[in-house]
């Protein structure tokens, strides 16, 4: 399998059919809309004959849906945060639906009414919250003045007046001493906090200047009492208002909790609103006139029949004109998007290719070639039967019991597939949660471990390098084939086949010297390596006008042999990670074994689960990252360029559901 072949789709239909056609396209989630005015289509005929009927883009509908989306999201947050629920909130179940069924169930008028009612409750709660803060603030200072037994504004006489206020506790004694120097003044302490003292001062108005001089010297914080009732009564009344406010708030929250019954409607409305917004955004790429519209897009060839059927289901055949064209060379180089297409075994590994870079439209998809290597490498680095079984069980349960978002489903498929090489390498290393497999069962001698992580370290190291050598040769072979297809025959020799010959020649020499002790093999290897090295040097000389520059280029290319040696060394991490993960698991088991029997079967059980969970996480993370690195650096660098533009079809958000072309049997799980 490879890059999905694309064709350019053009649809022309009456202007009043625009919404139905865009709905069909969006429901397929397999067509990328092109910008008509930035394509290579000659639109001069339309501009000449239909200029007066061209319709300018109207964003009012899009803005209306964006506003509704914001209101829905705010309402959902508000309901979940403030409403009182008598029972534990049940999660909204993720669903599998078609866009058509979702749109049919969407009642914009009903949703708008819900939003208005929720907004009203929200505003009432906001008023309550503001009032509560004000009352709490009043309660705080009324609590300090509640022991004042007069109403200041009612006790101000012709010759006397009342002054209320507070000073710092540290200045209390000095303040009182200075007040005694002012004749005819009555001082009453109302409240004493940790840092302040609150006073009521009754004084002669004729002495106000002297009093002001004293209070100014101690930063006397004057307080104006605003009520017509005693502070104690005001304090009690304030508490009653707070209690009443709490009752009102509780009642509002009870009213708000009734909207929990409509949560699913609101979630689905949010999903549908996203769909409307994306559809409106797509309209700016169309050519619209008063009479007709034109939409262009990229469609995978295997979706053509599906599009034709979807349009026929919604519109009479004679009301829609549709055509499919092959992409031009210019479009292939600059415009066409890339969508990978692989079988179910390889497809989950496409995310590794996407993380690096998508291939160009006319470039080979490296995913099918990379997949078997990644599987072997991942399994070799985790290499434990128990861990593999946990991966298998976890992925199977997630896939069978839950409707997963597409990205999470791909991850589940990814680890489901990788669980098998993990189990296989676990048998090879004889490891089950870090414990060695028994050598004898019922008198039968078992062959495990085939490779011991303690006694066969050198063998595992050599095996890691061999796997790397095979992958490097594969990458060079792919590069040579691709260059040959492009008729770059000399490049295929100097950049691929000659390097294969050089590496194989060196391998033959090593085998002849160290393994077979055969001079014939050594001689054969030297001949192959020398011929290949000469090819690497000579080809640039032939290709370059300046033979000196060609020679320099060829010699510099030959120097790249050191890079291949470094690449081979990188594959030793397969051995290192596999052995380290198993050793850590064995150390955890040993740690628990040293515990007394009582602790071993109580705390030890919890401890061993936690430790193995940590080791599993680190092993999977390490294998995932380092496995990807080996593909990106040591493998892709031999033949793969990338740089393709990702295929972005007109689709939905799929925040709470998976949108399919055809309705499937519903399965659900928590969002």
Automatic annotation (TrEMBL):
Signal sequence, renumbered to the chain: none
Family named by the database record: Belongs to the V-ATPase 116 kDa subunit family.
Molecular function per GO: ATPase binding; proton-transporting ATPase activity, rotational mechanism
Subcellular location, record wording: Membrane
Name this protein carries in UniProt: V-type ATP synthase subunit I
Plastid listed as a keyword: no
GO biological process: vacuolar acidification
Pfam families named among the record's database cross-references: V_ATPase_I
Record's keyword terms, sorted: Ion transport, Membrane, Transmembrane, Transmembrane helix, Transport
Transmembrane segments: 373-399, 411-437, 457-476, 497-516, 522-542, 598-625
Membrane topology: Multi-pass membrane protein
Any single GO CC term annotated in Swiss-Prot or TrEMBL for this entry: proton-transporting V-type ATPase, V0 domain
Organism lineage: Bacteria, Bacillati, Bacillota, Bacilli, Lactobacillales
Annotated InterPro entries: V-ATPase_116kDa_su (IPR002490)
Superkingdom of source: Bacteria
């Amino acid at each position: 399998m490879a890059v999905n072949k694309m064709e350019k789709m053009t649809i022309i239909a009456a202007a009043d059919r625009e919404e139905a056609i865009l709905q069909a396209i969006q429901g397929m989630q397999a067509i990328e809309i092109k910008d008509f005015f930035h394509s290579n289509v000659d639109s001069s005929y339309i501009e000449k004959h239909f200029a007066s009927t061209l319709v300018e883009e109207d964003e009012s509908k899009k803005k209306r849906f964006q506003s509704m989306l914001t209101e829905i999201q705010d309402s959902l947050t508000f309901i979940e945060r403030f409403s009182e629920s008598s029972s534990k909130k049940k999660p909204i179940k993720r669903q599998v639906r078609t866009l058509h069924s979702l749109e049919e169930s969407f009642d914009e008028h009903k949703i708008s009414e819900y939003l208005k009612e929720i907004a009203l409750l929200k505003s009432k709660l906001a008023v309550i919250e503001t009032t509560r803060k004000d009352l709490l603030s009043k309660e705080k200072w009324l609590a300090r003045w509640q022991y004042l037994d007069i109403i200041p504004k009612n006790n101000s006489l012709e010759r006397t007046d009342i002054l209320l206020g507070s000073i710092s506790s540290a200045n209390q004694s000095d303040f009182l001493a200075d007040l005694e120097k002012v004749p005819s003044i009555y001082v009453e302490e109302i409240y004493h906090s940790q840092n302040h003292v609150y006073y009521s001062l009754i004084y002669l108005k004729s002495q106000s200047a002297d009093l002001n001089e004293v209070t100014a010297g101690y930063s006397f914080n004057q307080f104006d009492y605003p009520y017509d009732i005693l502070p104690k009564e005001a304090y009690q009344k304030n508490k009653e208002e707070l209690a009443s406010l709490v009752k009102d708030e509780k009642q509002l929250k009870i009213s708000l909790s009734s909207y929990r019954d409509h949560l699913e409607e609101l979630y689905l409305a949010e999903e549908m609103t996203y769909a409307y917004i994306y559809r409106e955004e797509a309209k700016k790429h169309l050519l619209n006139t008063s009479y007709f519209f034109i939409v262009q897009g990229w469609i995978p060839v295997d979706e053509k029949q599906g599009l034709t059927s979807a349009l026929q289901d919604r519109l009479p055949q004679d009301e829609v004109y549709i055509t499919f064209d092959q992409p031009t060379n210019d479009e292939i180089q600059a415009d066409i998007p890339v969508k990978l297409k692989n079988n179910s075994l390889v497809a989950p590994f496409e995310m590794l290719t996407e993380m690096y870079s998508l291939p160009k439209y006319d470039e080979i998809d490296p995913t099918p070639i990379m997949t078997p290597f990644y599987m072997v490498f991942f399994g070799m680095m985790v290499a434990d039967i128990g861990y593999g079984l946990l991966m298998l069980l976890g992925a199977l349960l997630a896939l069978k019991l839950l409707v997963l978002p597409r990205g999470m489903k791909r991850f589940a498929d990814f680890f489901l597939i990788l669980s098998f090489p993990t189990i296989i390498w676990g048998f090879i290393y004889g490891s089950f949660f870090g414990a060695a497999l028994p050598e004898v069962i019922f008198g039968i001698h078992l062959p495990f471990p085939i490779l011991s992580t303690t006694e066969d370290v050198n063998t595992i190291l050599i095996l890691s390098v061999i796997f790397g050598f095979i992958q490097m040769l594969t990458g060079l072979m792919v590069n040579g084939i691709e260059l040959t297809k492009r008729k770059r025959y000399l490049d295929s020799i100097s950049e691929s086949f000659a390097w294969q010959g050089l590496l194989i020649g060196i391998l033959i020499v090593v085998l002849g010297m160290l393994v077979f002790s055969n001079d014939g093999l050594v001689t054969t290897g030297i001949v192959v390596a020398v011929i290949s090295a000469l090819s690497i040097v000579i080809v640039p000389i032939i290709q370059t006008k300046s033979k000196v520059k060609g020679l320099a280029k060829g010699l510099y290319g030959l120097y790249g042999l050191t890079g291949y040696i470094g690449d081979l060394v990188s594959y030793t991490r397969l051995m290192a990670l596999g052995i380290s993960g198993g050793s850590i698991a064995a150390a955890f088991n040993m740690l628990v074994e040293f515990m007394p029997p009582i602790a071993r079967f109580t705390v030890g059980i919890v401890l061993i689960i936690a430790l193995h969970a940590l080791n599993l996480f680190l092993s999977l993370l390490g294998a995932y990252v380092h496995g990807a690195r080996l593909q990106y650096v040591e493998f892709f660098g031999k033949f793969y360029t990338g740089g393709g533009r990702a295929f972005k079809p007109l689709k939905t958000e799929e925040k709470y559901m998976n949108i399919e072309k055809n309705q499937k049997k519903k399965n659900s799980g928590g969002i």
